[in-house]
């Protein structure tokens, strides 16, 4: 059992502070500079401690902890992906020299303005940023501004993905269309357009109403019955099965015949090779 696991509980121990022993035990590496991946999700961490000594770290997940300072990450030049979501972080300046950083999930923190993100704009490979996660209800104060997205893209024009939305490249057009459809459906729902009207139309009324809630639609029906592909004539079905069975047996007979012919050819080849070897030895004896 690993040392950073509760005995009999199967749950990781709270760390509070990241230590060399915790890093080695978690990663299985003897040297900190050999560690390339760390996952300390939900470990009660408030201090990243000596994690900066993992100088070759590429992937780090410290989500759902109690971290407020990222200073120990300033030495991680090879960091590619970083998940710091659900913490208490207000500043990202420690990442200003993380030239290899590609993806950052900082949803659910205390980043209050676009200016706090300026340190990421100079990172050449940085293209994927998440500051809000609507599924898990994780946000930053900066996300509530009316021009949040516009100002952020103006600051970081190289972004390809923002808050899970594909902005450019493959999938961006599909994502845009789906977003527009979602927005239209949400607007229709908010306006009451999708309220189901199960009451009967007024006496004497006929046809489909031109306004008001959309009536409940009938459930879709299958295009054909489940047994429509079955052979209804049992004799025809039996004949088809017999025909298939006969063809399969014929194939087995052909396979057996080919196997026998191959075995005979192999035996002949072995016999011929042996006889040739004997004659060769005799010729050697005579020459001597």
Which key phrases capture this entry?
288 residues; 31% helix; alpha/beta
Topology:
Elements: H1 20-27, E1 37-39, E2 59-61, E3 81-83, E4 103-105, E5 128-130, H2 148-155, E6 161-162, E7 165-166, H3 172-190, H4 234-287
Parallel strand pairs: 1-2, 2-3, 3-4, 4-5, 5-6
Antiparallel strand pairs: 6-7
Protein model, in words:
- It is built from four helices and seven strands.
- The chain has 288 residues and is of the alpha/beta class.
- A seven-stranded mixed beta sheet has the order 1-2-3-4-5-6-7.
- Strand 6 (161-162) and strand 7 form a beta hairpin.
- It starts with 19 loop residues before the first helix and ends with a helix.
Question: Secondary-structure element order, as H and E?
Answer: HEEEEEHEEHH
Give the strand order of the largest sheet, numbering strands 1, 2, ... along the chain.
Answer: 1-2-3-4-5-6-7
- Cα(first) to Cα(last) distance is 75 Å
Overall radius of gyration: 36 Å
Secondary structural class: alpha/beta
How much strand content do the residues show? 5-15%
- Average pLDDT value? 79
Question: What share of the residues lie within helices?
Answer: 25-40%
> Count of DSSP E strands?
7
Specify the overall morphology: elongated
Number of helices: 4
Main β sheet profile? 7 strands, mixed
Unreliable parts: 195-211
